[in-house]
Amino acid sequence: MGINFQKLFNDYKKPVRLSKGWVNVNCPFCKMPSDTHCNLGFSTDVPSSNCWRCGKHGWVESLALILNVSPIEVRRIVSNYTVGTQKIIRKKSSGKNLVLPGSSTLTVGEENYLKERGYNIPYLQKKFGIKGGGLFGEWSYRIIIPLFYNGTLVSWVGRTILPKEFIKENNIPRYKNLSIEASEINPKSIFFNLDNSRDKKVILVEGPFDVLKMGDNTICSLGTSVTSQQKLLLLQRYEKIFIAFDNEPSAQEKARKLGVELDAVGLDVEVVNICEDFNKNDPGELTQKEVKQIKSELDI
């Protein structure tokens, strides 16, 4: 993602000096003497700021001082100067409306898979529009989860119901995504469950089944990696992000790294292990009572 700092400073009547890859303004941190030569540079690539006299500074803190506003107000202001937003929502060239495969009438195996994990099937069908992949075809033996963006079906993902040992022995992926080419929008430019997560605070989890259990104001990026387009969406839509990845060392380490990256672009971030106190591996294993307690503690 990028921010058009040149337009931002021009709109706010701040003198600028341009250099390759940087938009420079007077540094509010420089003292004795104060900066009058626009030594504080803002990168035109990834949001960051550095003064050629006094060193590196957080770009949100720098903007807050330059514009004389709060850090929260900075995030609101820069959302109007981000570049590349249209790439996130552009429809694919196929021009055809997607039709979700599968059946609303689940097989016994599909029903048992969901019930054994504490899911309310009628709720999932009504709230998220899940279907069963059946016994034959490309999406067989999978729970099919549609991805909507602004009410439009843009892609889907299928979660296998086959036993762990079987999928490991046969190298079967746990999740299978509709290809980017066939999707209306690249799923890695948005998040699953955005339409049900419109408050200013949101919980970010790893997978769709975690979202199915956690409900509203919970999104997933279809894995622990978050793309620049997704970071841009977070910056535009939310004021507070709780990163709640799985309860294992590697996932928690990725959560901490992502937290640092999101903090660097001005988001209020908190990394939380919501499963540790309940001795669960991931949010999909939580009970509804535990989910309610967690969301109450996070005030979300």
Topology:
Elements: E1 2-3, H1 5-11, E2 17-19, E3 22-25, E4 40-43, E5 49-51, E6 55-57, H2 59-67, H3 71-78, E7 82-83, H4 85-89, H5 108-116, H6 121-128, E8 131-132, E9 142-149, E10 152-160, H7 164-169, E11 175-177, E12 201-205, H8 208-214, E13 218-220, H9 228-237, E14 240-243, H10 249-264, E15 268-271, H11 288-297
Parallel strand pairs: 12-13, 12-14, 14-15
Antiparallel strand pairs: 1-7, 2-3, 3-4, 4-5, 5-6, 8-9, 9-10, 10-11
Helix pairs in contact: 2-3
Can you walk me through this structure?
- With 300 residues, the protein is of the alpha+beta class.
- 32% of the residues lie in helices and 20% in strands.
- The strands form four sheets. Strands 2-3-4-5-6 form a five-stranded antiparallel beta sheet. A four-stranded antiparallel beta sheet has the order 8-9-10-11, with no helix packed on it. Strands 13-12-14-15 form a four-stranded parallel beta sheet.
- A hairpin with a 2-residue loop joins strand 9 and strand 10.
- The radius of gyration is 22 Å and the shape is elongated.
